[in-house]
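Aim 2 progress update. The chain analyzed this quarter is reproduced below.
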Amino acid sequence: MQRFAEAAGLHPSDAEAAMPKIMWVPSGRVAEQAVAALDAGRPVVIPGVANRLSAWAASATPRRVLLPVLRRRHPALRTQRR
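Predicted structure tokens:
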């Protein structure tokens, strides 16, 4: 996770705090699912049940409700002015 956080410009502890541990999927599994989806012609894959549920909930939530929640939770957005 440290390399992911660094690539995203975040401190690893900020990245860990941004999402519950259940949402973190090992990079090897993400890569395997991405390649399988590519082979199957699927343009989008969301690894992990918790992540799929979260994506579904986000798509069903009005943006005026969703965006303030994301701003409070996402470490890169917490420091930006509103």
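DSSP finds six helices and no strands in the chain. The two ends are 29 Å apart (CA to CA). These observations will guide the mutagenesis experiments scheduled for the next reporting period.
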